Structure formats: structure tokens, C-alpha cells
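To fix ideas, we close by showing one paired sequence and structure record:
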Amino acid sequence: MNELEAKFLVAVGKKPKGILRRVLQELSWAGYLARPKGPTLVMDTYFDSEDSLLQKSGWTYRVRHNEDGQTLTLKQIGTGQRGIFKREEIEQPLADALIRAEFPPPGPVADMLTRALPRDVCLNPLFELHNHRTRYHLTHPEHPDALIELSLDQVTVDAKDSLSYTELEFELVQGPDDALNDLLVVLEQQPNLIRARVGKFHRGLLANGCEASHAEAIVHPITNVKCRWVDLELQHLQQQLQLLKLYEPLAWESVHPEGVHQMRVTTRRVRAGLRAFANVLPPRAAEKLAKDIRWLTRNLGPVRDLDVHLEHLHTYQDLLSIEERPALLRYQRHLEKRRRQAHRSLIAALASDEYTWLIEDFGTLLAETKVFEGPNQSMSIREAAEQQVRPMLDRVLRKGRAIDKSSAPAKLHRLRIDAKRLRYQLEYLLTPYGKPMVRAAKALRNLQNTLGDHQDAYVAMAQLTSFCDHTSLNRVERKAFKQLVALEVDNAARHRKRFAKDWRRFEARSAGVKQLI
């Protein structure tokens, strides 16, 4: 059976019930009749094999518990176009609650699982969704045979990271597809609704920390340092293009901070790759993509920075007294408003011609590199490491050794940027060079994280101070923000102290890299 539905997310910080009332009012003005069907609680548990065989075959598998009993469902994995999702769905009731869902009884779901998975594959629970659903049936006189079920889904994901979001679903129960398309004209005018790009399963995966498993592994990784530098470059950039496409719909939705974060990390890896492999890339195509990627990174940055500030609020609440906490709520609303604005700008960027051109320019660079005849195309990985990685390593070591207790925060931030660029260089060489390179890259990542936490503390201090300076606060509120600024001062000092330990570990690991290159 094919399922057809339109899905929209409610913007973070907006009240779901208020958005629902507004949508129902707009639909009423457009001629739709809405009949309440009442609230219900839906609990979904998703399953897959340890190596994600079901996902790789293009299906999700869940067991659903609701007031009607239990249902097993297999559903095709897909992304939405204009918020419309059309997927094949196979359902099977589970009459006996004692039967384990990972071993379904005979039926259509069991038959499909048998065809999709090898024998004796064990299915394990991935995560659970708890969904408080409010339902309406929609009809319209222009489509007398059509019935649409509107659901306001307030979802909590029980996974590695807690995640909550609200989604509006419009499922075409019966009637022509046009009935759902006409509905989009009304919904796309709502400023606080965001077209969904993925389903609940993808968001659950992201909250569970396993979305990157959708990226295809490199079939034949380069393991010999005598191989060409340009071949390593092609592998790297092809993988980054795949990751860019993977995270783009998740960044569009921005339900979980990792969507924007991972897409931004990918753009930085691309930029680092374009610098590292500049001597074997066609200059014009590389320069064009570099400009595109800088543009995308700038559009991702504001959302990511505000996500980091909002995450800090969880650590602030326990520090304040009950009478001081309203000040934190004001600050949270301020940050959420700025984030909604930044998110709208990001969506506009991802929907623009510029992003389409970026993907095209990426493909052009890969194609031209394969036939490019530059002077360094025969350069080996070992030669490139000697010429490029060694100077970068020496630069980081020189800067790091110059850091002392009196060094300005900006000096540590510049070291962080250089450390990040070096780490990306080392990561290109992990497979060809093996364990010494892996150990150094791990130590460098820990060092970079510590420097990042130090920088985040200083940025948070600046954000809190700016809010105080530009907002009318009473005595209690101002006292609360002074406490929060003091907390970030302590955090910065703690991270600075940790830096010394992380630096010593990296400096020791760097000796192994020097011996290799």
C-alpha cells in the first residue's frame, strides 16, 4: 500500500496548540471542514540489525502501540519534496502482546523481512518515539471523495540524546493526490511551519547518534603511501559530497543540533581539502567551489552558534534560585527568536539557486580533476606529506609551545584554527600511515575540543554581557546574569587548565608523526 502525506514542522519556541488553531482557522477560510477525532498516545519502537541491513535495503521496521492495539509496519525510507512524502507501507497486526516484535509471526511484514534480510539476522531495538497525537478529519467540497487526516504530533524521542519536536501531518486517507496538493497552498503561507524533509525515523537516528551510518563506506580505501596524492583527494571529496547531501535535509529541518553541526563540519572539511590538495586540482574549478563553500559555511554558522548558546542554558538553570530563573527564561526567548530568524535565512539559502550551483560545481570539480594534467599529478602521498603536513605540524607545535598563562584568548583561538586544519590533514593519512597517525589525530582532536570549549566560554560571556547591556533588567535579574558570567569565567579557566594536559599528550604523539614523514 502506498502512503501519501504532507508533513510540516512547528518552529522551535512556538506553542503547538496556538499553531494548530491558526492552521485550522486558515483551512476553514479556504473552505475545509475539520472534524475532531480526539487525542491518542502512540508509542513506536524501531528495530534493525546490528549492521543496519534493513536501513541499507531502504526500509524501516517498527512496532506501534496505541489504543487500537499493536501493529507491525515496514515503510520505505525517503525524503520529502515540498513536504510531500510518498512511500510504500506494509502493515500487520500483532494480536498477541507476548510475541516479540523482532521475531514477527507469519504475515506480510514477516514475509518482506525474510526477503530483505539474510537468514538468522537478529533485529535489535534502536529507539522509541512517544507521540501525543491530536487528530482531525478534513474534507473539502471541491474534492467530495477525498478524506485527509490531520495529526498534530508532539513527539519525544527516547534515545541517546533526548529530542522533542512537533509535527503537523496531513495523510490522504482516500481520494485523488490533487486534494493534498491543494492543501499545500494554504500551509506554505504559514510563517511558523517548516516543510519536513525527512521522517520521524531519520530524526530518531540522529538523536541516537547513528545518522552517519547512511553514508556509503569507501569500497577500496587507499592504504599505500606510494599511491598518488590526487587519488586520495578524489576519495576525500567524493565522500564529503555524499555527506553534504546526507546532512542537508537535516540541517534544513534543524530539529536536532547535529544536523546543522555535521553539515558545517563537512563544509570545513571540504575547505580544508581544497587547500590541502590545491596542487593537484584544476585551479578555476577549485576556486569556484571554494567560494561556494565559504558562502554555505557563513549561512550555517549563525544557527550553529545559537544552538551552542541554547545548550548552555541547561547548565545555567541549576545555578540560579527560583526567583532568578525568570531572567533565564527571558534570555532563552531572546536566543530562540534569533535562532528562528537565522534558521529562516538558512532555509532560504538551501532552497536557493546558489546551493543548486554549489552541488553542480562540486560535481564539475570532481569530473575535471579526473582528467586534469597538472605538474603534480604523479606526486605520491609520502611526498605530499613531507611537503605539506610537516610544515603545518611544525607551525602548530611552535604556536602551542608559545602559549602560557598570560596568553590572550584570541591567541588560543588562532591555535585552535591551526590545530583543526592540521587534524584534517592527518585524517587524510590515517589509512596509509596507520596507528602513529591515528594516535596523533586523536590527541589533536582532544586538544581542539578543549580549545573549542575555551572559546565557547568566552563567546557565552560576550553574549550574556551584551544581553544585559541592551535589555532592561531589574536588580534580581541583573544579579542572575552576573552569576552566569562568573560561571563562564570559571569554565574558561578550567578549560585553560585542561589545555596544558592535552597539549603535553599531543606533543608526545607528534613525535611519532615526525618519524613517519
